[in-house]
C-alpha cells in the first residue's frame, strides 16, 4: 500500500472515530461488489446497447417513462429481469461490516440505489433516504390514484420471456386496476410518486437540525458516487450537481470518499481509491 494512502486511511479512520455522527452517502458503486453493475461508470449498463430480438435500445431509452407508456410489456420485462438480478444477489460483506461499525453511532444514510440492500442488512429504515425510490414498492400509472392511495409493496414480479423480455401479464393496481409500475424515478419521469421519500428527506432534515442544536460533529462518508450530473457526490458539504435532492451540510468535519476512480481535488476531502468492500474494510480495520 502506498505511503500516502496509508496516511490518508489513518487520518480518515481518526475522523470517523472522533465524529459524533456519520452521514453515509452512496451511489451505484456501493453495490458493485455484490454483482450489480454501475450505470455510467466503467462497464456501466448505461454505456451499453441492449439487443432484444431485432431491436437495439440504450438503457435510458428502455428505462424511460415514454417506454412505460408506449411499450409497457417490454419496459416491465426488462425491469423485472433487472430486479430479479438484484433480489437473487446479496449485500456484500462491506455492508455488514459497515453496519457493525456504525450501528451504535448517530448515522443517516442517503442513497441513490434502489436495491434496498441497507434495509436487508439491518440498518434502521427510519435513518434511510432513498433518493430515487425503491425496488420494494409499486405505484399506479394513474398519478391521481397515487395521491389518494399511496404505494404498495412489490410482493411479486411479473413473469417474462428471457428471450424477448416481454411479460406475460401486466401487474395491476390493487386500488383502481390500472397498470402498476415500479416506484422508482426513471428517465424523463414527471410521474414518479415521491411522497414517501419526501418523508424520508424530512427525517434527514430533522436529524441534521438536531446535530446542529446539540453541537455534534459530523463526518460525511461517501461511497461509490460517480461524477455524472445526477450523482449524490458531495463537494464541501453539498451535492456536486447542485440539485435539490440533498440539503447543504455546513457543519461537517469533512468528506471521506471511497471510490476506485473519478478522483477530484475537492476541498476538505480524503479520497480512498478503492472499491466499496475493500475501502470499508481498510477504513475501519487499518
CATH top level of the largest domain is Alpha Beta
What structural category characterises the helix and strand content? alpha/beta
CATH superfamily of the largest domain: TPP-binding domain
- What percent strand? 15-25%
Radius of gyration: 20 Å
The strand count comes to 13
What low-confidence regions span 5 or more consecutive residues with pLDDT below 50? 43-47
Give me the oligomer status.
single chain
Major beta sheet summary: 6 strands, parallel
Query: Helical stretch count?
Result: 9
Give, in order, the helices and strands: HEEEHHHHEHEEHEEHEEEEEH
On the 0-100 scale, what is the average pLDDT? 90
Which percent bin holds the helix content? 25-40%
**What is the 3D form?**
globular
N- and C-termini, Cα separation: 11 Å
The name of the CATH topology of the largest domain is: Rossmann fold
Read across the widest sheet, the strand sequence of neighbours is 5-4-1-9-12-13
- Number of folding domains? 2
CATH architecture of the largest domain: 3-Layer(aba) Sandwich
Overview of this protein structure:
With 286 residues, this protein is an alpha/beta fold. It has two domains: 173 residues, TPP-binding domain (Rossmann fold, 3-Layer(aba) Sandwich); 100 residues, SIR2/SIRT2 'Small Domain' (2-Layer Sandwich), CATH 3.30.1600.10. 33% of the residues lie in helices and 21% in strands. It is built from nine helices and 13 strands. The chain has a six-stranded parallel sheet with strand order 5-4-1-9-12-13, with helices on both faces. A three-stranded antiparallel sheet has the order 7-6-8, sandwiched between helices. A hairpin with a 2-residue loop joins strand 2 and strand 3.
